[in-house]
Amino acid sequence: MRRWAKAALLQDAAVTLRIVGAPEGRRLNRAFRGKDYATNVLSFRYPDERPLAGDIVLCAAVVGREARERGISLEAHYAHLVVHGVLHLQGYDHRRRQEAQRMERKETEIVSRLGYPDPYSV
Length: 122
What we know:
Elements: H1 2-8, E1 13-20, H2 22-33, E2 41-45, E3 52-59, H3 60-70, H4 74-89, H5 97-113
Parallel strand pairs: 1-3
Antiparallel strand pairs: 2-3
Helix pairs in contact: 1-4, 3-4, 4-5
């Protein structure tokens, strides 16, 4: 996971990666995003910290289910979501179409460089 995070970092950073169960993932998503379900990845940036600092939370149950549904390896899916989370910490987003395309291109480039298939072609 460290290798995946480093591949996506464009600057020095202090990042904590946590893997949680569905109940905690749901609690966090509800508390911070107002969505009452567990999601695959959440990123929390601490804007006043230097160097860049933040937490990335991965929900094991959701990540496993998505990998099975998509027919991809669990490792490839975790790699993609770590990269996705690290990019969020650095200001990338996917709320608007143009931002999403930019972020997806960057994710695909990094994940491919790491030796995994394009996560958006599956």
